[in-house]
Structures are given as structure tokens and as C-alpha cells.
Amino acid sequence: MQDLPTTRPNLRKLDLKAAELRLAALETALAGGKGHIPPAFSWADVAVALFYAGVLQIRPTQPLWNERDRFILSKGHGCLTLYALLADLGYVDAEELSRFAGKGSLLPGHPDTLIPGVEACSGSLGHGLGVGAGMALASRLDAAPWRVFVLLGDGECNEGSIWEAAMFAGHQRLHNLIAIVDRNRLGATDFTENSLSLEPLAARFRDFGWEVAECDGHSIGAVADHLQEARSRREGKPFALIANTTKGKSVPFMENSPLWHHRMPKGKEIDVARDTLRSIIAGLQGS
Amino acid sequence: MGYDFRDAVFESVRDVARRDRNAIVLTNDMGAMGLDQIRTELPAQVVNVGIAEQNMMSVAGGLASAGKSVFVYGICAHITARCFEQIKIDICVPDLPVVLLGVGAGLSYGVDGPTHHGVEDIAVLRTLANLTIYNPADVTTAGAAVALSYSSRRPSYVRMDKEQLDELYDRKSTDFSRGMGIVAEGKDVAIVATGVHVWTARAAAQALAKDGISVRVIDLYRLKPVDTDALGKLLAEVRAVLTVEENVATGGVGTIVAEMLGDLGLRPRLHRMSLGDKFLLGSASREWAAEKFGLSQPGIEAAVRKLFEMSRAS
User: What is the predicted ipTM?
Assistant: First the structure.
């Protein structure tokens, strides 16, 4: 299948990229004095699977290439990772990261369509799946090869509009629409199962006409395998991958804590977070 | 069966869809004869998305961002407020070619209760940058509004009344890009009206002329953006202005004119006629509202006479 990537960097390199993106995301937030660090960390490995493991068919030098795969970060608050990779891939100048959320700078606290590589404005939750379904419908109407990938937050799946879109995509059998749920089990202030429970989440998507798989969302190889397999399909149902993740992944004091959503590290916490990520990077570089 | 707003609008949509296979019509499970004709002729270009307005707007944005020109059809009250955020974020922020086609302007569906009253939609959508809003008073304007919206390649909202109204304008000789038309000439008082009550205002002006009160009636059929220079000139020539609309008191034509007069430093005596600041419970037929709020020929005549006397005394 010609649109499938033929090579994938080795997993260690991909893990290294994820660690580097997390560090860049942290530095971006620190530069701006704000940002959602733990929600960015939870999908960083999924991001690497998408952008660096050959899943997304994109041309960073041609952000508006007609046949590019579309990627929508529906959980817009997770944008620190997106910004880090857009800078890394050359969509935006790396200097923009240091101006994050600054006076009239390019990168706000939630992504908008002024940013090269950003396909949809997000930040208010519940929009991305419907927009992605519209794009996927357009691709199918044109018999085009490109696919649509939408990264959803799990808390975001409380929004009714997600289920309107899920019903629509299932009914239309949009095989070219692939959703990834960043299942970190935390919303903004509490665990999802305490606030408005989502389980059985996989069954819910299945009942709406989707094919569903689950995997460890920090296993870049597993995520990429699922997404590449889904991308290779020529017909059938839309596909949802429930990526089981840890919010705040890699920095222990942020991990899996309801306190850590848009809280900023202070004082020694900053040093600990930096040192933790730097040592992960050094470990992956050194071997 | 006469030719109504939906016929005019869907005739215009059909013309577009025939020559542009990238034109797609979405509906939230609403029917119209003209839509059925398009569906029969061009089935791949019509999608019933089901009764899910939020998703309909998101899908419209997604389609448009991928190169489609999208028309979205439903009832005014249902395809505006409920899905306001989708219109804002998924269509207007990225400035995409999506035309909202709303049927049931004002009290078109007055007897169907407050859920169906299209009386807040202008106020709500007028806050959105990049969006053009048309509120045609006749079928000719309605058809032209669709064509202008499509060719602009930007977001638009076209409201449709349920009435069958005659033609106010000549299709061929009228430049609808002006956004307003003068349907009665006069020098004492100006009425700025929109939608169905342009007709009521014109009838009132004709009756008042017999009593020596000269009334200019302006049909403001494009509510956003308004050509304030042109409208300002028309209003600078009179001593009193009356606005007439079948909307809530806030955010519609009365607000538009008051804002504009203030911005331009014009000080004619102004009176704004509307449905007031209240929900209309019960069976609020257009005739009932006409009596209650004076949105009738006699009501408008009385308002003009009062304005005329006051402006002469001052």
C-alpha cells in the first residue's frame, strides 16, 4: 500500500523525541508563565507516533499540501506538545515557543488557525470530532487518499457534541476518520469516573458504529501500529483508539494528580521537572 | 402553490450546485420542496446530518476547510443559538465559505411557541466577526442574497420568512450588494425596516402621503455589515427615524440604527418598534403580535404621526 510509510525510526529514538517534546513543552510554559503541562505530557507519545513514526502523511515544508492528512488537536489545552512538535518540524519558528502566550504573539494558550499546521481552532471542547468528520466526508466525496486524525481528551467525551459527531461518523461509515482518545482518566479537577463517568467508553464508541482498539498510550510502537493499520483501510467503520495514558507522564509529582491540570510548577518543582526530563533524555541518548 | 422564500433560496442554491460540484447542502432533517428537487437531481451534494445542529455546523466547517462550499438549512431558531459556538469557532473564526439558510424569520412560526420564534438570532449572530447577515423582504432579494453569499466565499446567514411576498425589486436592474433599498421616497420621516415589515411600513408610508406626511422607507436587507455611509446619508436628510422589526428589542435593526446614528453624530428623533424585551408565550401569531406591539399598518402610521408632530415641535 503505497501511502503507508516504509520505515520507522527505532523505538528508542521515538522515546527520545517524546522526552524532548515534553521538555520543550515545559520550557514553553515556563516562558509564557502559563499553560497546561500535564495534559500536554499525557499525549506526547501519541504525538510522536503520529508525527514521527510515519503515520501522518504530511509535508512540513508544504503545510497546505492538498493531500496531507489532517490532524486536529480537539483537546486544545494540550497544545504545548503540538507547538513543540510544530516548531521541531519547522511549521513555526522555534523562537515562537519563547513568546508563547505573549503580547500579540503567534501561539496562544489554545491553538487557532493562524498557526501553520493547525487545521482547526480548538480549546472549547467538543468541536474537533465533528470538524474532522466534515473533513473526512469531503475527502471521501473527492475520493481523495488523505485521512483525518482527531485527538480527543477523555474528559472532553462528556460533551454531547462528541456523540453527535460519533453517531454521524458511524452512520456515514467514515473509514477515513480516526479518533484517538487520550484516556488519562482525569478531567480538569477530578477523575473522570467521579465527575461524569465515561465507562464503558470502548463499548460506547462501538455502539455508535465505530471500530475500537485500546492500548498503552505511552507505547509509541503500539500506538503507531494501530494507527497505521487503521490508516491503511479503504472502507469500513471509523476507528477509535483508546490510548491509556498518564496525565503528567514523566514527571512523578504531576502524574495522575487532580491538582495538576493547568497548575504551573514553582521554585524547586521547576528544577525537579527539568532535571527529570533531562535525565530521561540523557539516558535515551547515551545508549 | 405560490413562489415563496424557500423556493427562491433553493432555486439559487440549485443553480450553484449544478455548476459547482463542490457545493454541499446540509440539513438537520428539515424538508423543503426546493431542497427535495436538489436531492433528486444531485443526491451526492445533499446530506441529511440528522437532528444534531452542533455537529451540523462542525461538519460544515470541516467540509468547507477541505474545499467545499457549504449551505446549511434549518429553522432560524434552531440553527443559530443552540450551535452558536460551533458557528463561531468552526466557521467564523477560520472564515470559511458556509452559508446558513434559516427558515422562520421572526414570528413566521409564531403560533408554534417560543422554541420556534426566530427573534433573537440576529442579535446573537451579529456579534460574530466575518459573518454577513441578510434578512430579505422579498423573494428576489432572497435569491440574490444566496448568490452573493456563495460568491463571497465567506460565512453568511440568510433568513427566510414563511410568507409568500411579491417582488419589491427588479431582479436584473438591482444592485443587491448595496445591502439596502429605498422602497418609498419621502423627506419628513424615515422608516428603517427589515423583513416582512418592510411591506407594512411601505403601506403605512403610502397612506401617510395622503395626509401630507412624506415618509422614506428603507429596506435594510443586509444587517451585517451595514453601509453606514449610505444609510447615514439617507437618515441625515430627515428629522425623525422609526425602526421597525419583528425581533426582540435588543441587537436588531433598532440597535444597528441607534449605534450608527451615535457613531455619525446624527441626532434625529428616534423611535424603535420591535417585539420588546419579553418572551411570547402562548400562540403568538403575527396578527396577535401586530396588535400587541403595533407592528401593523395602523400601528406604524400612529408611530410616524407622533414622531412627525414631535420633530416639528422641537
Answer: 0.95
